[in-house]
Design a protein that fits this description.
Blueprint: E1 8-9, H1 11-17, H2 23-30, H3 34-41, H4 49-59, H5 63-66, E2 67-68
Antiparallel strand pairs: 1-2
Length: 75
């Protein structure tokens, strides 16, 4: 079983703030599958650094506006 990541994200909120973008549209813009977008949104999968930057760029925000890591957590 895959261990969920501690990294949280605001992808769903950002999608809705950008014209209610669907997961499929975001997946197309990132050149990944819709299932990948779903897994990232749900915290079941951490994207590569490249995909994380692409997600931030799609929404025109910084990485820390999309992804958060709990304060005080040690990797």
């Amino acid at each position: 079983m895959v261990k969920p990541t501690k990294v949280t994200n605001r992808i769903r909120a950002l999608r809705f703030a950008h014209g209610e973008m669907t997961q499929a549209v975001l997946a197309d813009r990132l050149d990944v599958t819709r299932q990948t977008v779903i897994a990232i949104e749900q915290g079941r999968y951490s994207p590569s650094l490249e995909v994380a930057f692409q997600i931030a760029r799609v929404f025109g925000v910084g990485l820390d506006d999309v992804f958060q890591y709990p304060e005080g957590e040690q990797p």
